[in-house]
Amino acid sequence: MRLRPHPLRFPAAALAAALFATAAPTAAAAPSATTTTAAPDYCAARCADILPPGENGNATLAEILLNRMFGSRPAHTDDQLGPYAALASGYPGLTEAGLRGFFNDASFGVPADQVAGTTSPRPDVTIVRDKAAGIPHITGTTRYGTEFGAGYAAAQDRLWVMDLFRHVGRGQLSGFAGGAGANRQLEQSFWQTAPYTEAELQQQIDVLAARGGRATQALADANAYLDGVNQYAQQAYNARTFPGEYDLTGHIDAITNAGSIEPFKLTDLVALASVVGALFGAGGGGELASAQVKSAAEAAYGKDAGDALWKSLREADDPEAVRTLHDGQQFPYGTVPDHPQGEAVPDPGSVVPERLVYDATGSAGTAATAAPGVLPGNLLTAKHGMSNALLVSGAHTDDGHPVAVFGPQTGYFAPQLLMLEEIQGPGISARGAAFAGLSFYVQLGRGQDYAWSATSAGQDITDTYAVPLCTTDGSPVTTAADFYLWHGSCLPFDRLERKDAWAPTTADNTPAGSYTLVMRRSNYGLVTARGTVGGAPVAFTSLRSTYRHEADSIIGFQELNDPGAVHDPASFQQAAQDINYTFNWFYADSAHIAYYNSGTNPVRAAGVDGGLPVLARPAYEWADFDPATNTARYTPAAEHPQSVDQDYYVSWNNKQAAGFTSAGFGNGSVHRANLLDDRVKALLRNGGKASRVSLTQAMEGAALADLRAEDVLPDLIRVLRSAPVTDPGALAALQRLEGWLADGAQRKETSPGSHAYADADAIRVMDAWWPLVAEGVMRPGLGDPLFTALTGALQINESPSGGQSGPVSGGPVSVNESSPHRGSAFQYGWWSYLDKDLRGVLGDPVAGPPARPFCGGGDLAACRGVLLDTLTKAAAQTSAQVYPGDAGCGAGDQWCADSIVQRPLGGVTDAASTWQNRPTYQQVVQFPSHR
């Protein structure tokens, strides 16, 4: 069995022996004498994948201490990080044979000479680990045994991560992992988003069970999986081979072994699913920020002109936006009405966030702590831009079979949130990635003759209601009232409480503290803020269509793993339809590519604008809305964006199709998906053919590109060059920028491992210039109140380093902007605003232009003056000013500021790697045959 020895049975002597002895290797049975593959594999060694840093996410306390003292790491902890990082420098010379140097072989099974070890936790299942990456290949002769093995392998690789996230999903992280400020911030944000009682978690399981059929099988699978998880956890505890984080956080005594690992149960899986759904599968909810932009615009320019300006800044259905479906398909959803009904714009200055924390004691009153926390505090509240996909149909490839390069961009953690696995058993045949704790099915990966992946879609499934407040004792109604109006009745809010308490541990020295988290819930959703509308006190609530339905997607994932259920584009689209979270799903087999947008999209009342707060009245509710079950009428499958065999598909969280309204701001003429779209178009131009190599090169070229430089800098240069540039400093900076643009406008090392960028000075200037020029162009025309409101709806910048943010208003920013070293960049920013405005100043045609000119008031000479002034200021900033440094980087270290850091979720850390803007887990596939 894969149980690592735990040497800390005795005091200091044993610890010293463990530290100064050779680290004990993973225990494993002798390699199997035969290959493990039994399932048909139609990929013929043309499927590949990668997931850094490594498969092994468990380290004993001794291994953690050895890592901290000597830098050593358990086997397979970081062995996928090197190939992943190396693609940044290796992609220009990539060959078909060379792909294996940057990706794992994702074929089914393990060749006999590549078997590292075999474990059989039950007679009806075998877990084989490969030598290359230590990935578990699970083969069962019964359905129960197969899923038991999946759970056992998951606990081997991600037990600590699974435990972390079941506590995150319940708003209980601080009591489990420590009271660090970030831990508290994170548990608070999840309690605000998905608060449930234990009975309500169980109720979601009961509702699923009542559906019968596949749901019954899914719950049986989940129970078998949990049995495997719990058996491994108990064995690891008995053998003292459990993750050392349990020691460091005080759950188990390192000397006596006193303590326990709490068994996992079905409700834990619902809590875990709520985390995944909230992070990656929701959309909408920004209606208050949008309303504040609208209010500020109308205050500055009057009702009609202000409303027109707000609409142009919102870019809800921008005609210049890059679309995944580019053949003119129309899929109207969330259409902005000409005359909105039930609009509830808050009175200026009246909105106050709902109080969450009560009864704080001890360190609960201190937000900042020395301990960093196990996860970013804003993991949920910060905006997410994740995942990309490039697919080319067989009509445009080298051998006539479709090619796909795709995967989720889920951030970088050690160990990773995802894990790799292969599962083969009755009714299951798949290999790929799954979230830790939910890996009874592969969630993104390949089947016998098809592969699938997803990007976050983010369409609007979350609405904000302005709910009238009331009292039952005749007292005046204020915003503090604890009752609300529902269909003429004055009802009390539900009060959902979570009590958290923590004490200092070895891992987290935050002093003891406690508090109670309180969320109030109405029939119109969770209370997020209070204020007034037309002077009347209201509670602003958030109503998400997937709330109380966190586990419903289990059916779709089951189907994706079942070769009897998915065998062509139509059956794939049906499986995707059975997933209720908002994702863009992509499919490739040997003959077809396909796309489907999933999500339970509520049908709104006629005339309601889902992009603004709505009055809480029956006339403006979702069609057929039932608050008891949080169900409604949803748009039918035919109205979801979908397609089969378009010439190519690209997605990087961009607009899906014409008419499919964007939930938030920032989906305009310049979007990071343009980086993919332009490169695929170039591959196919003049009859060109794509291959696995060329499509990977297109992806990686985009991964190193600076979107601002590639798509907005040409506009800036044209304005600056509209007259001679005579200032020497400005001219030198401009010439450096022009040289960088000519070199491809990428952020790439001078040579592999140099830790220095080519065109470094131009990059420094661009980084310093963007927030200055964006503010210089836009603020004068917007005015201070509207400028501030707009930064609350859409941040100005999202740089690779997470710095150079420019003015902010306290609204949500991107994960990368607020938590640097995350890789993902250039999703959220004012790129489109400047692109459209500058092209207008230059006299170019602009579809969907801003409602008024901004740069220099529309005068080219005045605009040029703004650009010159801000460029001169940017060029004068030193590297230390642009990149001020952090705990891991010195001031002025440009490469380090951009670098990707695998944020440790436990005790083992990994080296930083060069910046890339690409999926965390990624597949490269081309099936040559089909069943």
TrEMBL record:
Segment forming the signal sequence: 1-23
EC number: 3.5.1.-
Root EC class: hydrolase
Taxonomy, superkingdom: Bacteria
GO MF, one annotated term: hydrolase activity, acting on carbon-nitrogen (but not peptide) bonds, in linear amides
Gene3D superfamilies: 1.10.1400.10, 2.30.120.10, Glutamine Phosphoribosylpyrophosphate, subunit 1, domain 1, Penicillin Amidohydrolase, domain 1
Chain residue ranges for the region called Disordered: 798-820
GO biological process, one term: antibiotic biosynthetic process
Keywords: Hydrolase, Signal, Zymogen
Membership in a protein family: Belongs to the peptidase S45 family.
PANTHER family noted in UniProt: ACYL-HOMOSERINE LACTONE ACYLASE QUIP, PEPTIDASE S45 PENICILLIN AMIDASE
Entry protein name: Penicillin acylase family protein
Source organism (scientific name): Streptomyces sp. Y1
